[in-house]
Amino acid sequence: QDVVMIVNEDGRPMAKPMRWGLIPSWAKPEKLPRSTFNARDDRLASSGMWREPFKRSRGVVPANGFFEWKKTDGSKQPMYITPSSEDEFMFAAVYDSWINEHGETIESCAIVTTAANDFMSTIHDRMPAILDEETVALWLDPATTDSDSLQAVLIPSPNELLRAHPVSTQVNSYKNDDSSLITEVTISEPETTSGQL
């Protein structure tokens, strides 16, 4: 699946489509890495998968919201998390370019995740690293290569930035892809009984 990535090209922000799920430049066609949709913030500087993109190819993915699954009574309820205002999220991301066996260049990306804030911790223990206007500028600046400066902006967002609502389990299948997936649904509360066992 493609997402829109904002990158710095010649000092200006540029929107580009990219494959979501990073393929590192050194990957072998017969052995592509799996589960590279998210890059943990605490592994960016040390992991061979993320180290070079973290230094040289950072971008931002704008989004209206994201899905996460909340464990409830042995099942998982999908939740849609959106900005509490009308603004979009700006997710920190890294990207890389890979040349496939046909000589085609594939640009791909991963969204950076960080520890959950108090609001998100009731749903999941991680969340996307959400940037504001000031930290977007720093993240996109190719002159910034100091890992400590970059790591400093990858922090849980303020609780008041987020809101969430339950959505249909239709979102559990990649085959479903339409606007109904973000519509709020009512969760039936389990019946309670009074009295003693």
Written description of the protein model:
The chain is mainly beta. 12% of the residues lie in helices and 37% in strands. It contains four helices and ten strands. Strands 1, 2, 3, 4, 7, 8 and 9 form a seven-stranded mixed beta sheet that branches. A hairpin with a 2-residue loop joins strand 5 and strand 6 (75-83). The longest helix has 8 residues, at 133-140. Residues 190-197 have low confidence and may be disordered.
Order of secondary-structure elements: EEEHEEEEEHEHHE
Q: Would you tell me the overall average pLDDT?
A: 92
Number of strands: 10
How large, in whole angstroms, is the Cα Rg? 19 Å
Distance between the termini: 52 Å
Assign an overall shape. Answer: globular
Alpha plus pi helix count: 4
Main β-sheet: number of strands, strand sense, barrel status? 7 strands, mixed
Helix-strand category: mainly beta
Helical fraction: 10-25%
- How large a portion of the residues is in β-strands, by DSSP E? 35-45%
- Unreliable residue runs: 190-197
Tell me the quaternary state: single chain
